Amino acid sequence: MASITMNNIVKKYDDGFPAVNDVSIDVADGEFLILVGPSGCGKSTLLRMVVGLEDITSGDLLIDGQRVNEKEPRQRNLSMVFQNYALYPFLTVYENIAFPLRLAKGKFSDQEIDQKVRVASDLLDLNDHLERKPGNLSGGQRQRVAMGRAIVRDADAFLFDEPLSNLDAKLRGQMRTEIAQLQRRLGITSIYVTHDQTEAMTLGDRVAVLKKGRLQQIASPRELYEQP
Ligand code: ADP
Ligand code: ADP
């Protein structure tokens, strides 16, 4: 687990217009932070800088107090969960979950990998599906496999980029509950991007509202939505 500190973060793309403009947010160890705002307000850009997929124009990013400004995902131990799952269609559920451990060549024995995959599949109720391929799974099951892959890495934090936006309303509600429970159980620091009001109101400890690249407000869901 880790804290994530953003100090006066600015991102300018080639057109020079700041997509993220002087944003400072302190995400505490184990906190679940929701990032909301209209399309184009800079949510994805901010998340991509945190994960190391995008350069920071100015400002400082600290993970557990360590400065990690460079665009270098390997510098940090973070897991990103995308809306399109990014699963490997030709691998079984088991091998999809095990994939990040196999990538770390020689670091984990087959036995260790097996144990980690079992723990994740227990948590995510995937035990009956381990030998199936992603193509035969429901959207909710695929999203759980994607989370399993994030869990086995023992990451310091989860970053979610609208993970439920491709699911139908019923499944979205179910997965919302599952993600909330899972995050509480694991107590892992999380940043969750969404434009869904219900997700923003129910999932997080705090909600950060971005508008045109600026941090407009940051408060608990209750404080935010009880305002006149
Ligand atoms: P959101 O995730 O809130 O929809 P984005 O972070 O995707 O917002 O985009 C913020 C702003 O930055 C938008 O004006 C968008 O057009 C611009 N933008 C995003 N990515 C790029 C890019 N690779 N090059 C240039 N402009 C970009
Ligand atoms: P989202 O709002 O879900 O992030 P977008 O359609 O804004 O999706 O962005 C999809 C991809 O296109 C992202 O990788 C983003 O960085 C890139 N992008 C967005 N706006 C621009 C832009 N104006 N110029 C170049 N790339 C962009």
Key traits:
228 residues, alpha/beta, 6-stranded mixed sheet, 4-stranded antiparallel sheet, 7 helices, 34% helix, globular, binds adenosine-5'-diphosphate
Measured between the Cα atoms of the first and last residue, the distance is 36 Å
How are the strands of the largest sheet arranged?
Answer: 6-7-8-3-9-10
Oligomer state of the chains in this structure: single chain
The number of helical elements comes to 7
**How much is the average pLDDT?**
90
Helix content: 25-40%
Computed over alpha carbons, the radius of gyration is: 18 Å
Low-confidence stretches: none
Q: Based on DSSP secondary structure assignment, what is the total number of beta strands?
A: 10
- Largest sheet data: 6 strands, mixed
- What is the overall shape? globular
- Give me the secondary-structure category: alpha/beta
Write down the secondary-structure element order: EEEHEEEHHHEHEHEEH
What compounds sit in this structure? adenosine-5'-diphosphate
Strand content: 25-35%
